[in-house]
Amino acid sequence: CYSIPILSSFPPPGTTVAAKAHGARVNHRDDTGQTALHLASETLNQPAIKLLLHCGANVNLTTTGTDETALHLAVWSSSCKAAVILAAGRQCVELLLLNGANVHLKNWEGHEAIHRACQSGREDIINLLLSYGADANSLTNQGETPLFLFLEKTINIRKTRLLKKLLSLSYPLKLANYEGRLPKVLQLSSCEHLKDMLIQVSLEVWSLQDICKFNIKKIYSGNMKYQLKGIIPTLLWNSMYVQKESSYASKARNVW
């Protein structure tokens, strides 16, 4: 058996059968604890990712020591400045998800893929992860939510639509991490009004009806929400999915 190296110019899919016939070990780790799929995902090499998955690469294997999956690495690389500008990496992330990448696996810092996507504010990647069931309320080892990491970068404050979305998916609203620190954006004097409003709404006690509505939206998210149309009253469906009531985004709407 031999391991499959990752090359800048990967062999075409037609070599798959030959590789298997010669005993290629697609899940072999290199000296750093990475598999070929990890390296292909980190470099956003879509043809290589496709070939490796076709050869049977384990999409959810983690790196040695850091517990990073191929999805973590692809999302991270898609979130770097150059990738954001070029809108690169989405197809690689989607390819991994289509082949069973688990959005809930955490790395050594307790980060899921959604945390990394939110830190960069890459809206298309965030929406893609959410459509596959990523948890907008997941906490890192430091007690930081995806929203917290989104608000760690000043540039993200301009992304009002994404901020509203993350607020609409948050419950309970955790603004500070385990150390009691607020995200950097909320420490800015220019964002004092936003900070005060978010702190105010985070202290509100939700009614049982609002909590039930939120949990229904959490279960029936993405395209699944249309399964409820025609089953529950139209007014109720609209209040949850159109007006987006029962969310921190609606309670803090006067901020916008």
Automatic annotation (TrEMBL):
SUPFAM superfamilies listed in its UniProt record: Ankyrin repeat
Keywords: ANK repeat, Repeat
Keyword Transmembrane on entry: no
Signal peptide segment: none
Domain of life where this protein originates: Eukaryota
ANK repeat residue numbers: 32-64, 109-141
Protein name per Swiss-Prot or TrEMBL: Ankyrin repeat domain 61
